[in-house]
Amino acid sequence: MSDMAELWMEKALAEIHHCNKCGFCLPACPTYRLTGNEVDSPRGRIALVEGVLNNEIAADEGLSASLSYCLGCRACETACPSGVQYHRVLEAGKKVLDRTKPGHRQLTWVPRTLLKLTRQPKRLKRLAALGRRTAHWPLPSRLKALAPMLDYREESIQPVPPAPQSAPPAFFFHGCVQEALFHDANDAAKALLSAAGYRVEDPPQQACCGALLWHAGREEEARDLARRNIVAFEQGAAPVVNTAGGCGAMLKSYPELFDEDPAWRERAERFAARVSDWLSLLEAAPHRLEYQGTGERVVLQNSCHLVNVEGGGERPGQMLGAVAGDTYVPLAGQDRCCGSAGIYNIQHPEWALQLLDQKMDEVAQAQPTRVVVVNPGCALQMTLGVKRSHLNAEVEHLARYLYRAFLRAQGQTERGHQVG
Ligand code: SF4
Ligand code: SF4
After folding, report:
1. Which of 62, 111, 119, 279 could in theory staple to 343 by disulfide, Cβ–Cβ 3.0 to 4.6 A?
2. Which ligand neighbours the alpha carbon of 16 most closely?
3. Which ligand is nearest to the CA of 19?
4. What is the tens place of the pLDDT at every residue in 180-203?
5. What pTM was estimated for this model as a whole?
6. CA 248–ligand 2 middle distance (angstroms)
7. Which residue has the least CA distance to atom 6 on ligand 1?
């Protein structure tokens, strides 16, 4: 076994030793809540990986199924009173399976194509536009079930006048799927940050965060993207903000990608310390913005990676509560994964849809006119959920919703016309 393999195993075993099997994480785990089976819980998965690493049980189909049905949402880490970093154990289990069951991470052509496109943002954007236009065409049954996800009305966002050169800078990270499918959310966030007094900069050499590749086991490709992003944002020391909880969590986790490479780890740590969600900057902005609603009922589907990894998961709800005239209805399960989880909803559509339907029951009770999200995967999944549950509500990113409310508070519509 190589030194690197020993390091990841050592780190996983350290986490396993911290786990006292208390089970406090079980109620937080969406897959355990779905099946009630110990093997679908964090504690069960930790016990399986422990048995395998200690050569007590085989790394077989049972381990593969248990780990593959984990969403990677990391709600168990937030719930754990002992601070167990479960994701280290999950990754170690998958690495063992890479040796004993080399095909266990095999993907169907849809996620395979998506992973390839994360490195080709222009093609991803063209295909996303094509997908939207053809979503109503006759499609194979597997794709037909997912096509409603793309039913999204884009908005044209007018940039606000840029802040002066002397304004505090903010570096903007786009994300590949977010920019390809929901660039209006990025444009809206940039407009709001400018209005709040930041000089927003877009380093052009930035790339996909690498999260989908990393979780698919394509670690060298993910590291390559991480290095590109670290270099692209090293031109200054300003905060690096993003509008996608999944990307933010990955950017924050870059140091872990370089466990075995001290020089890059140090650069990754400096970079990760500057990463935050865009709302934290808005909160600390030179100018405080006002928001005016139109009497809507609004619910939130939060990003599990914003809540459990990046930090600042309370901010989306706080911002929704700050929109005068609209009613924000907090949901008990708004921080729980919707079943999107990267490419989980393509790999395991049957579980993803059950998780989504559970969530939509709760959403429907709140009778919202708008479902606000803070991550592109959640936007796709919740759009599907609204269609499946025949809810008369629109799904959109928080940035876009706030942008309209901001213009309204200034007496403008989103196209710059006077209201009323
Ligand atoms: S991971 Fe944490 S919460 Fe879960 S069983 Fe172990 S110690 Fe308890
Ligand atoms: S990452 Fe999420 S799905 Fe996986 S064990 Fe933890 S809580 Fe459960």
Report:
1. 111
2. 1
3. 1
4. 889 999 999 999 999 999 999 999
5. 0.91
6. 19
7. 19
